[in-house]
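Q: Siroheme synthase CysG, please. Structure only.
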Amino acid sequence: MRAARAPRETQSAGLEPLAVLPVFVPLRGKRVVLAGSSGGAPWKVKVLAAAGAHVDVYAPEPSDELRAVPGEIVDGSVALHARAWTPDDLWGAAFCIGALEDEADCVAFVVAARGAGAIVNAVDRPHLCDVKFGAIVNRSPLVVGISTEGAAPVFGQTVRARIEAMLPRGFARWVGAARDWRDGVTARFHGFAERRSFWERFTDRAFAEPDRAPTQQDLAELLGDTEAAPKGGAVTLVGAGPGDAELLTLKALRALRNADVILYDDLVAPEILDYARREARTMLVGKTGHGPSCRQDDINALMVQLARTGKQVVRLKSGDPLVFGRAGEEIEACRAAGIPVTVVPGISAAQGAAAALGLSLTHRDAARRLQFVTGHDRRGALPDDLNWGALADPSVTTVVYMPKRTLRALLARAVEEGLAPTTPALLVFNVSRPNQASLRGTAADLADRVEAAGLDGPALLMVGEAFSEMRAAVPVEAGPARLAI
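A: Structure for Siroheme synthase CysG:
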């Protein structure tokens, strides 16, 4: 019998250390001062004016480029004063920028600006800055700021270009509509869950049709769909995939971002929880092979209890929840309690292992059938009712889940029942994770190789002639995409 443990709430590790705090400063209608005319001055004036600021520029000898700026702005206003700045010029400014060539002049400007109560930036002098400019992706009112803390400006610009390519320009119209509709939506839906449901539908529609302007018909349909949606709590069983967070489906991501509570297993990679919204509670309801585990009845009861209080509950499982994930018992528990339950499939461990190693599970010259088998029964022993004739079939690829404890007995019995001893066999540990390792051999010798290697972690057994390309390889090969032949 495995030792029991109770579900327990867990805490996110929190953000990694930040080099800078990304903040956004509203400047519309506010006064900004820029002193000097160094190389970056014209661009900064344009950015400040684009944010709706009234910009006073003080420069005794403005460059031709700086003189041209007032005629090029798209918003705000710019006044160019062809003289040096004075301390009195800084009073009433919300933001002051020093674009001065001389270090001493710049220090004096920064001291005076701080004395006037302004936020200060000094061009090309990060040690004097309260705030710094970064690369900007402008889909206003959707604005993305990118900073490398001065370490790699070109890298930041490249990241900006990649993000710009991902964000259609039409998003500006959708975000503008969100701003215009927000008060009405808040007045219509008093509950947080309903408001969130509305904005999720809004976002789905924006991503589906980013290049057109949203209309009042969109608003009416979104309001109607939200009002007609079922109310109350629900449970969603979500497949987290074998480990690599990039294997999550879009539907799984949406479920994680909508969840109030996430119940997850030990085998779920920690980085996958980073995709959940930060307000969500996370609870470990771990089920470890042959180790301390939460009772299935306790997990079922917890799911139902949370959903009955109106929570959106995600039951997050490694791999695919419908493949040896006890999904059937959890679905039955929810249905018996009258709780709506849905399933989001995930990449199975078998698919993840085959893809990472570049192996076909159903090579047409070797496999006519693919079968998934469990390596142990409820007691942790080799199941009594395995179809040994099917396991010994040379035209089948067999994938055995949770095989470590019964590996030797399973392979020995399969050989006794007619499986060729030379049939290629492969054991993959920690599928799709950075510490993935593969151990290969034959049905006759793989168990000995496993004992000698001493590898650890969740494992998957793959047996069949579809893997015949594996020949006399080095026993152990680590890395999620490597297989020595």
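A: Brief note, in case it's useful. The longest strand covers residues 31-36.
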